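Notes from the 1:1 (GR / supervisor)

We went over the backlog. Supervisor wanted to see one worked example end to end before approving the batch request, so GR pasted a single chain during the call. The sequence is below; no edits were made to it. Supervisor asked that the structure be written out right there so they could see what the output format looks like.
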Amino acid sequence: MPLTRRSLMDAAAARFGWRRAPGDTTEVDALLTEQSEAAYTAAADHAALATAKNTDALAVQPGVLDARGRILAEVLYLEGVLTGARNRGLPSEVIERLEDVVDHGHELTVLLSAAVRSTAAAHTSSGN
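Structure output shown during the call:
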């Protein structure tokens, strides 16, 4: 389909491999199932790699720092989504769910920060 016949979002979706937003709950459920299946398929490889290389407290630190950084970036993006939802007057249930996600995301980054600190403390206390 020529660019003139597609919306800007369709063009961006095609260019960056994004999906169009599902329009009904059946499509949403299918997308969520697909995401979960892909994540759990990859999880076996991740678990094997993490088990092999995380042999002491300090070895855990880079992976946790990486996860925290990625999660923090996503949470900050979602704060923007939440601000947009509020500014556009989206339904209160949507706003409340986004607020929950943002709050939980910030809590997760705090917990990950504590985990990173504990890796350094464990390394120091072990005499290394």
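Supervisor's comment: Residues 1-5 have pLDDT under 50 and may be disordered.
Batch request approved.
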